[in-house]
């Protein structure tokens, strides 16, 4: 079977005996925690807020590291669009024109 796969016997045995390092375990734990915090925030929080939450829990992690892990996991923050007063005023004008029965904003 190893010949068919093109793998040496020593390489296969090394793969079977491999145990994850402490760094790999810590990385997987952090990724799980990032996913949990992201889900708890209803998929809104980005790297800065997730990093702050992790720091509150006592984990020393940088914003950049959280961002890298989020990218690797495939999650992104949801940015809410702010409504400006200009767009509200424009919406009011549009509604007023509609109520008056005119098709154009410029008609007086």
TrEMBL record:
**Which Pfam families does the entry mention?**
HTH_21
Q: Which domain of life is it from?
A: Bacteria
What positions does the domain HTH-like occupy? 28-81
- Report the InterPro entries cross-referenced here: HTH-like_dom, Transposase_IS3/IS150/IS904
Q: What is this protein called?
A: HTH-like domain-containing protein
The major lineage groups are: Bacteria, Bacillati, Bacillota, Clostridia, Lachnospirales
């Amino acid at each position: 079977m190893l010949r068919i796969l093109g793998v040496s016997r020593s390489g296969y045995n090394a793969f079977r005996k491999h145990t994850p390092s402490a760094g790999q375990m810590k990385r997987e734990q952090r990724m799980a925690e990032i996913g949990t915090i992201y889900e708890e925030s209803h998929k809104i929080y980005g790297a800065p807020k997730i990093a702050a939450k992790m720091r509150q829990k006592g984990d020393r992690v940088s914003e950049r590291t959280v961002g890298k892990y989020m990218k690797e996991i495939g999650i992104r923050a949801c940015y809410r669009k702010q409504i400006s007063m200009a767009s509200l005023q424009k919406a009011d004008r549009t509604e007023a024109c509609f109520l008056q029965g005119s098709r154009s904003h410029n008609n007086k």
